[in-house]
Amino acid sequence: MIAVARLAVLVGILGLLPFLAAIFCLYSMPSHSVTVIAWFYLYSAGILAFMAGVYWPIAMQLENRCYPLSPLVTMVLSQAFFLAAGLGLLLATRWQIALYTTAYLALYVVDARWMREYWPRWYLRLRLGLTLVVLVCQVAAGAWFIMSH
């Protein structure tokens, strides 16, 4: 049987591949850039919404326990990131750059600062590495967009 940590690392790394592939395509195949940038932010929204969904079951488990965050705050955080992910798709690309970069950074800060007690140490280390790669991809997509427009 595979350990949860190993599976999470594998799934996390596989989840980075579409981000990396999109950046590679933006810079190497500019003729497809409109499709690639749209796909990149669609994938960004999907992963952000997925990550936000993790807070919902935590909130349901908190009801009768004493933790640093109340169930209400945890649910609101979940919904705020979910709404940012979805509403970001309606924005112009220049605003998507800012929104998704900020949201991914904020998501990690929430995990590392306020949700730290809920996660094993290996998970926060994994999240830091994955988040850094995603942030570099967000900045690279933004830089490409700014340079090409």
Helix percentage range: over 70%
Number of strands: 0
What is the number of domains? 1
| Shape type | globular
Q: Mean of residue pLDDT?
A: 93
Which class of secondary structure composition applies to the elements? mainly alpha
Give the helix tally. 6
Strand content: under 5%
The low-confidence parts are: none
- Following the backbone from N to C, one meets helices and strands in this order, namely HHHHHH
- N- to C-terminal separation? 50 Å
Largest β-sheet summary:
none
Any idea what the radius of gyration is? 16 Å
Structural commentary:
The chain has helices at 4-28, 33-52, 55-62, 71-88, 93-114, 121-148. The protein has 149 residues and is an all-alpha fold. It has one domain. The chain is built from 6 helices and no strands. It starts with a helix and ends with a helix.
